[in-house]
Amino acid sequence: MDPVNKITSRTVVLPLDDVDTDQIIPARFLRTTVREGIGENLFADWRYQKDGSQRVDFILNQPSAQGAEILVAGRNFGCGSSREHAPWALLDQGFRAVISTEIADIFSNNSLKNGLLPVIVDSKTHQWLLDNPNIELTLDVENKQLTLPDGKTVSFPIENFSRYCLLNGVDQLGFLMEFTEVISEFEAQTR
Q: What percent of the chain is modeled with pLDDT above 70?
């Protein structure tokens, strides 16, 4: 996992509420344990026609979405069943952060464990982001701030352990591995 300190990118807006994990990555694509390539199936039922061709009206298929790393989503993003494949698909598609007023806890936890930053903002900021797609934002993990194009900053919550892991590019296991020497010393003393 790469360290995440600041993310500066254009936004892609998906203004739908209650987007569940089965809409993010449909269950039929959960047979893999490989992360690479899973982004092709991100929002598959909205993104592709039955014949497999792209729906030109879906936001991810539009030129303005190419290269964007920040997804601005509607309220209650990532609800539904727990599946790590959902943040995997977003990351593989190139997203590094999701912004909403409400992000489901299980999705948020899975995201943080995989290096995807879930950002909760107030309703006024959220509505402005929804109304102004394709703008450049900066998300500063260390200072827990979102910077809007006019320079205004908005704070967002992130608990300290997750923040540490993102800033240092480690997951929970990687964090524990940082203490291998200390653990070994302790085990040697207790024998």
A: 100
